[in-house]
Amino acid sequence: MSILQEKIELAKMVLDIEDESIIEQMKVLLLNQAQNLPPHVKESIDKSIEQANSGKLISLEEFKMKHFSEK
């Protein structure tokens, strides 16, 4: 089974869960996984959040024009 198929099957299983405590446990598991990111990735995320909070944002269209338009 491909990773995409695995994800779809997992999503179906999650949608069928009615027990809120299981959902909370899954959230903890997934959040802990994010805690295990390499330091350089965490630093990049933190920098991006700081930039966003200070208003240093551009739209997706501006980004595309800057990085993908033919010059």
Which helices and strands, and how do they pair?
Elements: H1 3-15, H2 20-35, H3 39-53, H4 60-68
Give a description of the structure:
- There is one protein chain.
- With 71 residues, the chain is mainly α.
- The chain contains 4 helices and no strands.
- The chain is extended, with a radius of gyration of 18 Å.
- The termini are far apart.
- The model has no long low-confidence stretch (mean pLDDT 87).
Throw out a few tags for this protein.
71 residues, 4 helices, extended
Task: Give a brief description.
It is built from four helices and no strands. The chain is an all-alpha fold and 71 residues long. The protein is extended, with a radius of gyration of 18 Å.
Our count of helices gives 4
> From the alpha-carbon coordinates, what is the Rg to the nearest angstrom?
18 Å
Order of helices and strands: HHHH
Helix fraction, binned, reads over 70%
Low-pLDDT windows of residues: none
**What would you call the shape?**
extended
Number of strands: 0
Spatial gap, N to C terminus = 43 Å
Beta-strand portion reads under 5%
> Which structural class do you get from the secondary structure elements?
mainly alpha
